Amino acid sequence: MIQQKIVRVRRNYNKWVSNQTIEDFSLRFTAKKIRKWSPFIVANTALGSVSFLALESIGASITLQYGYVNATTAILAVCFLIFVTGLPISYYAAKHGVDIDLLSRGAGFGYIGSTITSLIYASFTFIFFAIEAAIMSTALEVFFGIPLFAGYLFSSIIIIPMVVHGFTLISKLQLCTQPFWLALHILPFAYIASNHPEFFSDWTNFTGRSGDPGGGFNILLFGAASAVIFSLAAQIGEQVDFLRFLPPKTKANGVKWWCAMFSAGPGWIAIGGLKIVAGSFL
């Protein structure tokens, strides 16, 4: 019998791959043994992914261009459509513990179809991560004087140690930081409400660069604003990446399971829509 020599590098590698806190079951079925978190933890973590500032940027852009009336009607209409289309996707992903890639295969799109779906999702994610890094880098430059290139580098690298440990670390991070995120989100509106309440009426009367000077509704401008917002439909791919960690639905956790699935699945657009409106105002 040939004795196998186990070198230190291989031993360290074997220890690393067997670490269940690193395994996040990416791009495959999420085993039931790993779906150990409560529905609240999973939903809270999934909703934390909606914290990206691109939503506010989109709301600001369409309002400046098309005016308050066209922007807000587009936000309401598209949010409804995104909720409706995201509901079945979220339900089956959470029920069977699969991500958007495996869900596409199971829906009959085959290997090529699921690959195209993953490509669309990955492209969407890269674009929004780039936008988010640009926003964060600019903020670091404005407030702390950090050069823009250093801000890009910092914003890109800091995420790597967080995602290496998968859902385990991300869930803890979201749980600890969300109270601060909510407080900082509310702070500017509290300040404006107490010091400049007239800004709210200025917002509702804003007609935009391309809008009707009288502030009326324009179907073409509504369509243009809707097209921008509808790019967010691909966000459901990231939501189901979290929802597949929901524990299997039972009689005991049925109500909590449905609440978590609705709120963190298609319901992400409810919070997302509020953030778009917030950006529209700011």
Count of runs of 4 or more consecutive helical residues: 13
What's the total number of strands?
A: 0
Radius of gyration: 22 Å
Helix % is over 70%
**Helix-strand sequence:** HHHHHHHHHHHHH
What is the end-to-end distance? Answer: 73 Å
How much strand content do the residues show?
under 5%
Compute the average pLDDT.
85
The backbone outline, from C-alpha atoms, is globular
Low-confidence region ranges: none
Structural class: mainly alpha
Biggest beta-sheet profile = none
Key structural traits:
mainly alpha; globular
Provide a descriptive summary of the structure in words.
By secondary structure, the chain is mostly helical. Helix content is 72%, strand content 0%. The chain is built from 13 helices and no strands. Helix 2 packs parallel to helix 12 (254-264), helix 3 (54-66) crosses helix 13 (268-281) and helix 4 runs parallel beside helix 10. The N and C termini lie far apart (73 Å). The model has no long low-confidence stretch (mean pLDDT 85).
Give a short synopsis of this structure.
This protein has 282 residues and is mainly α. The protein is built from 13 helices and no strands.
